[in-house]
Amino acid sequence: MGDTNAAPVPIPVPYPTELSSGILLLRPLSRKGNGPGLIVLAHNPKTSNTNSGTSSSLAIEDGVPSPLIKWAEEGYTVVEIQEQAFGDGKENPLQLAVEELSRCEQCQPQDGPIGLISYDPRVWNLAAPSLASLPTILGAVIYSDVSKAASLTYVPSVSILQHLAGPAKSTPESKGVKVYNYPTAASALFATPFQKDFHYANEAVSHTRNLTFLKKLMNGPYFDLEAIWEEHTYYEFENRSVPHTMATMVQEPYVNHIPTLTGGIGRDRLTDFYQNHFIWNNPEDAELELISRTVGIDRVIDEFIYKITHNLVVDWLLPGIPPTNRKLEIPMTAVVNIRGDRLYHEHIAWDQTTALVQMDLLPEYLPYPYALPNAEGRKFEYRVPAAGRETAEKMRDKNSVASNGMFGFGIREVKINSK
Fold this sequence. Notes:
It is built from 9 helices and 19 strands. The chain has helices at 67-73, 93-103, 121-127, 200-218, 225-238, 242-247, 267-278, 352-358, 390-396, and strands at residues 17-20, 23-26, 37-42, 60-61, 64-65, 77-82, 114-118, 137-145, 159-165, 177-182, 249-257, 262-265, 287-295, 299-309, 327-339, 342-350, 365-367, 379-383, 411-414. Mean pLDDT is 93; it is low at 50-54.
């Protein structure tokens, strides 16, 4: 799987090339191959809030990268054209971008299909008239507002994906145009980071839809997402190498263990988490029993059973609980987002009550704290709706445990001791 005696592959440093005023080229930030060319139409950049003097074109703030960085991490050679580049009329920015992509060795294939993403409807309308003369641009993604959708320039020679912000009565589609609506988005800028209308979840959903749309048109880049995820877990659980584990992740990744709120956001904090709370805090007999796997365009979703002997403090799972030497089998779900050929995030979820039941740390009954009709002065307990290793057995084999047994749970009256 990998040699931990060799130094891990370093995270690449982005070095953009300025092609002209307001036009930047950034080569792929991937490690297992490169993809075709991509043109990004963007606002004029501002200075990053967290990187003094750094243009927002290269910024990463709170784990959120600029579009230029994000698409280069996906494996594309990216040309960013800022709105100002359309101002003087002396050159065609799109033509320049296409020519430079055809000359860039890292753009594979060099004369292959090109995709385009416009993060602002105004910039799209400036660029669209040139598309008919640029046949290598096969598909375009446009972010706009519902109220401005009718004013978007239509280009029949290009397949179109639209992301429309704001509530809509319907999302009409026409031939060659796919439309998604985002009712809660404040404006078309919901996918543009570092400004007030940015919406992390809506942007993430739209990004996955962009990949689905563009990769099919441009034939990639495609990476073996299963192999990338398995490489990562190999370094976590078998070789137990923090540097090699982190080398499988993008510049600013994160891990979120949802039930215990453990993990790390950003490279520094996640490295600390892996070193001091995870990789060396899994027992030697830790095993991930895979139950199912779903692979999408940019993520792997696993159902698995985490099996251990609780013979050391596993603080990411059971914070503050000393070793009990109990055998645990905990059903878990992992949603793993892979950006290009490196992990961006892991969302890991499980039922914490099953862990506590298996360790005899959760009683069968607990006091019921709410008033019941006609029960003044009486005390009750409720049957805790939780199960132990049966949860793992049920995930492993649907017929192992009868369904709906908890429907018979209820409350019971507790005798009050008189003094």
